[in-house]
Amino acid sequence: MDAVSSFFEGFIKMFNAGGENLMGLVTSILPTLACLMTFVLAIVKLIGEERIEKFALKGSKNMIMRYTVLPIISYFVFTNPMNFALGRFLPEKYKGSFFDACCTVVHPMTGLFPHVNSGELFIWLGISSGIQKLGLGTTGLAVRFLLIGIVLAFIRGVLTEKIWMIYAKKNDVPFRDSNELTI
Length: 183
Prior knowledge:
Order of helices and strands: HHHHHHH
Oligomer: single chain
Low-confidence stretches: 178-183
Strand content: under 5%
Structural class: mainly alpha
Shape: globular
Radius of gyration: 21 Å
Mean pLDDT: 83
Number of helices: 7
């Protein structure tokens, strides 16, 4: 009987811990996210959606810029998770691969620019603490990490685009040249 009682106490404690975690999110990250979203939308309105769309469309024409420069700019300026907002200005056929490139470059950027994804900073701090224990500097590692991340973001963006194009062609998915649908 004690084992059953212990099991249910632990079961309830798990949900209590989940509730405490949810309340922590509601009082910390959610208001921050709402403020960030409001700020980014205000910037978009001040600059003008047409100008941002033109910049993104010009950038999306070049594969290198589409999968390296645009994700880096979006993370550096908008940080995570608002960086994906830049993708809404891209043509439909590039949105998925832009998202993939963004997800690839975020962690390598955190080593040099901790503000881009502070939630994942613990990954970089874990890696860099081992390097520091060896008596080595972390700046060189951060630069190399970023360069490799940029190359991988480009490769993944191109591969995702190619796979999507094959799939879309096989299934007669219509592409819109205009930006009627947005994420």
